Automatic annotation (TrEMBL):
Domain Glycine transporter, first and last residues per copy: 10-87, 101-172
Keyword entries, A-Z: Cell membrane, Membrane, Transmembrane, Transmembrane helix
Domain of life according to the entry: Bacteria
Localization, UniProt: Cell membrane
InterPro entries cross-referenced by the UniProt entry: Gly_transporter
Transmembrane segments: 6-28, 40-60, 72-91, 96-114, 120-141, 148-174, 180-205
Record's bilayer topology term: Multi-pass membrane protein
Native species: Microbacterium helvum
Main location: membrane
Pfam families linked to this entry: Gly_transporter
Protein family according to the UniProt entry: Belongs to the UPF0126 family.
Protein name: TRIC cation channel family protein
Amino acid sequence: MNEPVFVIPLWADLTAVGLGGIQGALFASGFRGERRLDMLGVAIIGVVVGMGGGLIRDLLLNVSPTTLQSNWYLLTATGAALFGMLLAGVFQRLNAVIVGLDALVIGLFGAFGTSKALVLGLPLVPAVFVGVCSAVGGGILRDMIMGLPVAIMHVGSLYAVAAGVGCLVLASAHELGVNIVVAAIIGIVVTAVIRLLAVIFDISLPEQRALYRRKVAVETSTIPIVKP
């Protein structure tokens, strides 16, 4: 029996790749001083962000990388990166644009990764894992190439949390019988909204040291203090 085949609409996949390319180029264009990149460097970062999530998704699912099966993916990622360079020259303050695109990109890649995993027969939890890896994969590759601390591992980032919640909502809705396209749209919206709210209201997971200090505080509070 042939394995099930899941095909993400080309226009949707290219939209995610294009937005990722723009976001990556805007991010790379914002560096100054010793970390500034030339045009080729910015283009490479844009391509990595645009195509990285899809490559990681397909590698985890052990299927042929979709982004390498058509000329359009690399062309779209490269063109989007070049367009992102132009935008960097137009906008004086890029942070809001980068954050907005970032929220949408992780939502798109998370939804596509989870949807593809579910249709290929993976259980709910592994499907969510694939979606999260797809959502944050481009950002991880970007940070590694640029020699930066990986963003999802540091306080102040809810990349993986936002992607995880969105992917879980998508997978749960699909398990309840919701059409996969509708479930994917819901997952994208949930991921993007959580990510934007986290940035706007400065929401983050507690720092690991804060948990340790809280434990120490509780333990030491039981130690009697003898006053002279």
